[in-house]
């Protein structure tokens, strides 16, 4: 497989991951806005607790989505640093082969840590978004029962 083909697949993967995370961020923000709009003018009551929980869960989802973006940017920077170190064109390129190997190992460790963080944050973003949806549905069912 050619390096150009691998690079193109890498770009496409990154693009699709970005679209997914931004979709989830938009979904959480939209859900919060919708829930707030639906409850505007309502009196405070225990029946509103599930929708309050939904808003909190969607806020947490948004938070983890933002952390995912930060960790993903750190992964991209570490990847770039790694490529520069391998190509011997890094701005702070170590002077010897031995120190370059140490810098590469250190950068690979940072890359691995940030990659794990990004994955963990992405999973949490999804789970909190879904949990918020479930809490919203519970509120909606309570409202339907209350009105009937």
Concise summary:
It contains 3 helices and no strands. By secondary structure, it is mainly alpha-helical.
List the helices and strands and how they pair.
Elements: H1 3-39, H2 49-87, H3 97-147
Helix pairs in contact: 1-2, 1-3, 2-3
Number of helices: 3
Which structural class best describes the helix and strand composition? Answer: mainly alpha
Overall 3D form: elongated
N-to-C series of helices and strands: HHH
What are the key terms here?
148 residues; mainly alpha; 3 helices; elongated
Explain the overall architecture:
The structure is a single chain. The protein is elongated. The protein has helices at 3-39, 49-87, 97-147. By secondary structure, it is mostly helical. Helix content is 86%, strand content 0%.
